[in-house]
Amino acid sequence: MKRSISIFLFTLFVVLSTSLFASGGEGEHAPFDPAAVATHHISDANTYTILEWFTIPLPIIVYNKERGLEFFMSSKFHPDPSHHEDGHNSYNGYVMRHGSVYRIDQPGFPMEGEVHLDSTAFTSRKEMVEGKEKEVVYALYQGQEYKAVPRSTWDGGVLGGGITPFYDLSPSKNVIAMIIVCTFLLWLFIKAAKGYVKNVGQAPKGIQNLLEPIIIFIRDDVAIPFIGEKKYKKYFPFLISVFFFILGLNLFGQIPFFGGVNATGNISITLVLALLVFFIVNINGNRHYWAHIFWMPGVPIPMKILLALIEGMSLFIKPLTLMLRLAGNITAGHIAIISFIGLIFIFGNSGESLLGGSIGSIISVPLTMFMMALELIVAFIQAFVFTILTASYIGAATEEHHHEGAHH
Amino acid sequence: MTGTLAAVGAGLAVIGAGIGIGLVGSKAMESIARQPEAAGDIRSNMILMAAFVEGAALIAILLSIFVK
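ok -> structure tokens follow
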């Protein structure tokens, strides 16, 4: 019985995925580009699309020197959920391409109100900009091309961005995911806390049973061994918060057909987490910690200078790897899943061949299921690794040395 | 051409990290087999060490992405 149910579900899934892609294959369409699809799925967006079909508009807050601060909803762009979230309309000179807001930076384009773009709204090509090859986006309006620029980034062009005519302060898809996860965690923990007040001295019930083992595990296996019995209480709330925040976002991003939010895979979010760790570790670092970085006791002077250089670098490398590890692992998981799903479209010649699509589905579905199971483990491991490394850095910074001279 | 060379660099970095994490894992499994009662301590230290090894590979991958 069980076996027949699983065979039925498997067949249903294959048929559904095949028909889904086949229905998208009508009319003219560009050849399938797996790299572009993967990049689009792991990036942040100004709109929230569920299942390539349903779009939740998000508020857009943009600042431009000439126009000032503007506030409107992303529905003004009429983004097409099945077409890479490209907007059909432009609004006050802003357009939406691949879910992100761009601004037209070329005279002649109507900058006031809603304007309907051409049916193929965007085109892009590689151009040399200030000695670097960059992808430049053009919006098409009445057969004319108008250059569109992305939002300003603070990195000054190191990571591919730069300062452009507008700033984007909108709560994007990732922000919405963080708000949802934090609200859920708040509800979960308040419910568990109420449980402890209600049944004092009794065995834990319900949600308490879910949370208590995890919290005890982090306390007994992470906080106490690394930070020490005496001091762990000061840092324990931070460790728990970081663990559940990362775990919650990792798992939220794994829900199929629910936007596939890649929040913990976004380098700016992990950057903030790593900066928090950096400040907590270095503000609480004691005399011995700084002595070990800048003037290592018990070694000859040339060695002290060399070690100061290395330790000074590792001061920044530690949070850097913390940031990259989380973002890299989660993004890699998302890309792997998207690539396996992309097999359907590659085999099916992006909707031309039903047979190829079916074969692709048969290969792709088990691979995707395996990958998602693996990603569930990775979600836990990465949250745990981030917490354990934070604890070990805090432990190293606050460790007391009882015997002076006996250093290691 | 730079893009492909960078990809080769990232691959080489991952080979190193793979060997390193493999060594950490194999030794940790051996020690757990020898002393099952210390499994908890060994496991958390194993994850810590694997994370450190991975850190070097991550820096290499980052460089291979951004240095062109």
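The mean pLDDT of chain B is 83.
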